[in-house]
Amino acid sequence: MMRSPGRDPAPSDGEEASDSTPLLQGAWPAEGAPVCCSARYNLAVLAFFGFFVLYALRVNLSVALVDMVDSNTTSADNVTSKECAEHSAPVKILRSQTGKRYQWDAETQGWILGSFFYGYIVTQVPGGYIARKVGGKRLLGFGILGTAVFTLFTPIAADFGVGALVVLRALEGLGEGVTFPAMHAMWSSWAPPLERSKLLSISYAGAQLGTVVSLPLSGIICLYMNWTYVFYLFGIVGIIWFILWISLVSDTPETHMRISQYEKEYILSSLRNQLSSQKSVPWVPMLKSLPLWAIVVAHFSYNWTFYTLLTLLPTYMKEILRFNIQENGFLSALPYLGCWLCMILSGQAADNLRAKWNVSTVCVRRVFTLIGMIGPAVFLVAAGFIGCDYSLAVAFLTISTALGGFCSSGFSINHLDIAPSYAGILLGITNTFATIPGMAGPVIAKSLTPGEGMLGKFFSKPMPQIWTHQKCLTSGTAPWLSSRAPLRWPKVSPVWILGADMASLIR
Fold first, then answer.
1. Which letter does DSSP use for residue 498 in this model?
2. In angstroms, rounded to a whole number, what is the distance separating the alpha carbons of residues 296 and 25?
3. Could you tell me which residues come within 8 angstroms of residue 206 by beta carbon, excluding any fewer than 6 positions away?
């Protein structure tokens, strides 16, 4: 429910008034400590560039692979769809030399693209657990450093064969798998409750901008140099970022050398009674909690679409819409530019609704999640049935991906709302399930038979997402859309978030 600004919010059903619960009662002013030059926003900016590098390292192969594979191989396998006519002007190759080309068919390319996620899924939960024990700073830093170093060896691995490249990509996934849980664990100590949407949307928006820059830049590098430089340049950037990260950030406000006393007191006071002093992790009650599984469903559904586009959009642009490699990179990046903008704006909007208009946290999370789920699925499916209208296809893909940015202020940060002390572990659990679409998606989509109806087949993957949320809306089976019971975690006043009772976790 929304109340006009300036009024004290009355406790709603299941909510208990408590002066020590800033999230619910607004004990701290929305502006808190100054934003400019603050340690918490410096952390957000450095994290932004960290996830920028992270996704640049992840997606550069999607474009480079187009240049790595011998076009005669794809033609022999009948990969190129005849559904859309050739329309791009031939690109004049300006480079003096080309990288080695490989005879990889469509199925092999699918396994190469999907192999990253076989490593990525392994370190999700361990990453959250380790970050809670030792802090997220070094874990996140070394995770990205490891990925950057392995990226430098990609051309060598490709020369050794498909097996070596698959193993290398899986090792990169192992490094990246700890990063999001580690960042969530750090924000549990750094993000005041009424600034969570802003801070997390800023830091994680780097992933989208990294995609925006990496896709066209990789295409330009392939055009003017050769594909090997894609991996060399991005790998070096990752190493430079690591040096800055290790030098400038700290795990907690207490250990930060340059934070002001006022900001430190503001952060620590706003998180008072939010964090648990319990050392052991309540694994069994946690795994029995309905809110956790609600986030799992949302996370899985979102990634079903997100990872399909992330790994296969350049292939779609080339093989279906028939864009050349230069156009491919720029047009593949356009949807993620929209997503980046929506992430930043939705973070500001979500916290303003909660802090200035006293909109309940559960309402904000639900609405932003639904916008970020239903909207993308509808437009993505529609893109599969518009024929070869290139402008409309790109527009639908851009709108679809942009609307997904609303989820950054929805389920994506819900872990911090329901259990700040275990946020990294919770994200590790939900992201483990949410990685499955990344493993299966490239192989399934690459195996689709080109030809008549290819567009519809390519974009049929979001249908489970639409079905999931339509089911929630009509039958009330999803906890966050049906129940209105309060949530409880250790030493935290009741917080409405996804709508199921978590009191059993502390009993």
1. S
2. 28
3. 47, 48, 49, 50, 51, 52, 53, 54, 55
How many Cα atoms occupy the beta-carbon half-sphere of 32 within 13 Å? 29
Distance CA 436, CA 226 (A): 32
How far is Cα 262 from Cα 494, in angstroms, rounded to an integer? 28
Residue 284 neighbours by CB distance under 10 Å: 9
Contact 417, 271 (CB under 8 A): no
**Dist CA 457 CA 384 (whole Å):** 7
Reference 82, options 457, 455, 452, 387; nearest CA is: 452
Write the single-letter amino acid at 493. Answer: S
What residues contact 123, with CB distance under 8 A and at least 6 apart?
A: 173, 174, 175, 177, 178
Alpha carbons 310 and 238: distance in angstroms, whole number: 20
Count CB neighbours of 433 within 10 A: 17
Distant-in-sequence, close-in-space partners of 151: CB < 8 Å, separation ≥ 6 = 57, 60, 172, 231, 234, 235, 238
- pLDDT band with cut points at 50, 70 and 90 for residue 372: very high
Q: How far apart (Å, rounded) are the C-alpha atoms in residues 299 and 124?
A: 14
Estimate to the nearest angstrom the gap between the alpha carbon of 192 and the chain centroid: 21
Asked if the model's pLDDT at residue 81 lies above 70, the reply is: no
Distance CA 125, CA 500 (A): 23
C-alpha–C-alpha distance, residues 337 and 398, integer Å: 8
Residues 451, 201: Cα–Cα separation, whole Å: 40
Residues of the chain above pLDDT 90, percent: 50
**What is the token pair recorded at 489?**
């975690």
As a whole number of angstroms, the distance between CA 362 and CA 128 comes to 24
- pLDDT, residue 158, reads 96
